[in-house]
Specification:
single chain, about 750 residues, alpha+beta, Topoisomerase II, domain 5, Gyrase A, domain 2, Topoisomerase, domain 3, four-stranded mixed beta sheet, four-stranded antiparallel beta sheet
């Protein structure tokens, strides 16, 4: 007989995909709601909330003595947070770092890390206690202000959320990565947030854009300058998502004999100073910051990074502009206001929604505390009423207590007392039997009755509730107002144009002669110096030289492709080395079947003759070939399926075109229109042919081409092919190359 498995050993027949999905979903929800995302009401994640609550239970109030962080971590880990001690300590240390959190919630004693990126000392060496800001978040926990829940092992209880006397979520910010979502909220100025809350109480329908009249933007612990436009900032706070640019704050320090240097006094948020200086030193070593002579860290209590210029004839703004682009002196502050709402549901909120969530929470806390206090008052009034009866009948009460075996029940029956009142009378001290005690009882009773009536009106009338919340917020604002060291705004706002001047490219790059080599298959590279013999150049199998351009590293190269687009490429960005280079498609957006027709340095006043295979073209200034976009600029408009076939220098008074049926036509270049972009005019009557090449030449020099042997042949009697633009032309002269291409000898 086969043994049956125990009844509790159940085998579930379930597909692997279903088992994984259900379990992964449970894990994802746990990560989102219990670890990574903060609560919109108090702005805390569970680990931070448990740390603050655990420190409060340990009596680590702002006025108390410090205790070892190891004691705090052990207590929090054992009672509330069943995770690693290092994770708890890292969270605790962050709450104490004034360069990370705008209004620290933990007062640390010892090494809690530095802005250089140094880690805090071990928890056995550091001590901590709560700050006044943390006490404000915890205020009301003993007054039934919030709900409590069982801890992970059911042996204790912890608050679901803290009462939070100020909007901590926006004041201190939050960051976290969950499963499939993340949050990143920068710190803000508390006084500005409170002003926005007060306005929202008066105007409940105010939107985020209206509240930006009070909340200017992030107020970061390390200061810095936000350089985005007002509209960009507004869109971030209206949608709850976006990014802002933060730059270091710098100043010019004048020295003797007209010398100067740049001193950086504030750096972007979460940028490690030591890593920043290391990156600046790398720029120096790799010659990517030619205007920077030296960088030194002279920081003590205040941040001070000294930048020595290599050449003091250059504007300081030029130097800083280059460093902003190349280093973490400018950083991108990503914003994603993804939080848990009151229903514990994750969602992205805008500025108005976040402040409303806080205010709604404060109203709930206020009403709950009022009801708790009201219950205490009712209980005290009941006792006072019983004590008053005792004082009015003191002799009889004493007699009952002296002669009765069960005085409590007799007192209840004789004076219609409640058990609570009778118990209070029996516990009354003899010293309280003095004559003036009745006066004190009646005075206390009157005061409590007035307080009870006020609380009843507060609970019943929302207007009174908002008045009380406004008063509480104003009290917080007095402590953290803009006139206080903690409340003073640290991050400023400025337009880019106001902090930096446009600098020429020569200010950023070492000027050196180079030669740019572009193969026919689109591989580009740059070599130092000038190439005297192009035949020595090597290319991949099946590839050969397409274009060769001598220039300098500070030049910007213009490129024209056969799809009619013009591009610009900084010569310094061309890959250096002796190899085959890199595909030019890595620098500009080119299709696989697109070829480069011209590679040149644009000159002021110079022009180019561009033409398409279907016989249209015009003259374009070389300055029109400039484009700041990777996708280039559409210069020559082409019909579907057509290609550009020429981009020749327009240095001369005559133009010539040749068609695929070997017909050649010359005409005055003045007949060509000058255009910034477009299709152009008809150049030659093609019939069933295609245009092969186009050129501009000087009538005094003549028309030239390169024969099959590589020799330049000059046609002095070019007038036999002179005609009107868009004419039919004549057969090309004897010896004209089969490739049907000209060569410019101007």
């Amino acid at each position: 007989m086969t043994d049956l498995p125990p009844a509790d050993d159940v085998i579930v027949d379930e597909s692997l995909s279903q088992a994984l999905s259900s379990r992964y979903l449970a894990y994802a929800l746990s990560t989102i709601t219990a670890r990574a995302l903060p609560d919109a009401r108090d702005g805390l994640k569970p680990v931070h909330r448990r740390i603050l609550y655990g420190m409060r239970d340990l009596g680590l109030n702002p006025e108390a003595a410090f205790k070892k962080c190891a004691r705090v971590v052990g207590d929090v880990m054992g009672r509330f947070h069943p995770h690693g001690d290092q994770a708890i300590y890292d969270a605790l240390a962050r709450l104490a770092q004034d360069f990370t959190i705008r209004y620290p919630l933990v007062d640390g004693q010892g090494n809690f890390g530095t802005v250089d990126g140094d880690n805090p000392a071990a928890m056995r060496y550091t001590e901590s206690r709560l700050t006044a800001a943390a006490a404000a978040l915890l205020d009301g926990l003993n007054e039934d202000a919030v709900d409590f829940r069982d801890t992970y092992d059911g042996s204790d209880q912890e608050p679901v959320v803290l009462p939070a006397a100020f909007p901590n979520l926006l004041a201190n910010g939050a960051a976290g990565i969950a499963v499939g979502m993340a949050t990143n909220i920068p710190p803000h100025n508390l006084a500005e947030l409170i002003d926005a809350c007060l306005h929202l109480i008066i105007a409940p329908n105010a939107d985020s854009r209206a509240l930006l009249g009070f909340v200017k933007g992030p107020d970061l612990p390390t200061g810095g300058v936000i350089v985005d436009e007002t509209e960009t900032i507004a869109q971030v706070y209206e949608t709850g998502r976006g990014a802002l640019r933060v730059r270091a704050k710098w100043e010019i320090e004048e020295r003797a004999r007209g010398q100067w240097r740049i001193v950086v006094t504030e750096i972007p948020y979460l940028v490690q100073k030591a890593k920043l200086i290391e990156d600046l030193a790398d720029l120096l070593e790799n010659k990517k910051a030619p205007l920077l002579g030296d960088v030194r860290d002279e920081s003590a209590d205040d941040l001070r990074i000294v930048l020595e210029p290599k050449n003091r004839s250059v504007e300081p703004a030029h130097i800083m502009e280059s460093l902003f682009r190349q280093s973490a002196l400018e950083s991108r502050l990503a914003i994603n206001m993804n939080v848990l709402d009151a229903a514990n549901v994750p969602r992205v909120m805008n500025l108005a929604e976040l402040l409303r969530a806080f205010l709604d929470h404060r109203r709930v806390v206020l009403v709950r505390r009022a009801r708790f206090r009201l219950g205490k008052i009712e209980a005290r009034l009941e006792i006072l009423a019983g004590l008053l009866i005792a004082y009015l009948n003191i002799d009889e009460v004493i007699a009952i207590i002296r002669r009765e075996d069960e005085p409590k029940s007799v007192l209840i029956a004789r004076f219609a007392l409640s058990e609570t009142q009778a118990e209070a009378i029996l516990n009354m001290r003899l010293r309280n039997l003095r004559k003036l005690e009745e006066v004190d009882i009646r005075g206390e009773e009157k005061a409590l009755q007035e307080e009870r009536d006020a609380l009843a009106r507060l609970i019943a009338e929302p207007a009174r509730q908002w008045d009380q919340i406004s008063a509480d917020l104003r009290a917080i604002r007095k402590i953290y107002g803009p006139e206080t060291p903690m409340g003073r705004r640290r991050t400023q706002f400025a337009a880019v144009a106001a902090t930096s001047a446009p600098a020429p490219i020569e200010a950023f790059i070492e000027r050196e002669p180079i030669t740019i080599i572009l193969s026919q298959k689109g591989w580009i590279r740059a070599v130092k110096g000038k190439i005297d013999d192009p035949t020595t150049l090597k290319f991949k199998d099946g590839d050969r030289l397409g274009h060769l351009l001598a220039c300098h590293t500070t030049d910007v190269v213009s490129i024209f492709a056969d799809d009619g687009r013009a591009f610009s490429l900084a010569a310094a960005k061309a890959p250096q080395g002796r190899g085959f280079g890199e595909p030019i498609k890595l620098a500009i957006d080119l299709d696989d079947d697109t070829a480069i027709l011209a590679l040149f340095l644009a000159e002021d006043g110079a022009e180019r003759f561009v033409a398409s295979a279907d016989g249209y073209g015009f003259l374009a200034a070389e300055s029109e070939f400039s484009s700041t976009r990777r996708a280039g600029k559409a210069l020559l408009a082409l019909n579907p399926g057509e290609k550009a076939i020429a981009c020749a220098p327009a240095m001369g008074d005559m133009a010539a075109v040749v068609a695929s049926d070997r017909r050649l036509l010359a005409f005055a270049s003045g007949d060509l229109p000058r255009m910034a972009k477009g299709k152009g005019v008809k150049l030659i009557n093609l019939k069933d042919a295609r245009l092969s090449d186009a050129i501009v030449f000087d009538r005094a020099v003549g028309l030239a081409w390169t024969d099959g042997a590589g020799r330049t042949r000059l046609l002095s009697e070019w007038r036999d092919w002179l005609g009107k633009r868009a004419g039919i032309g004549k057969p090309a002269p004897k010896g004209f190359p089969r490739a049907l291409k000209f060569v410019d000898v101007g």
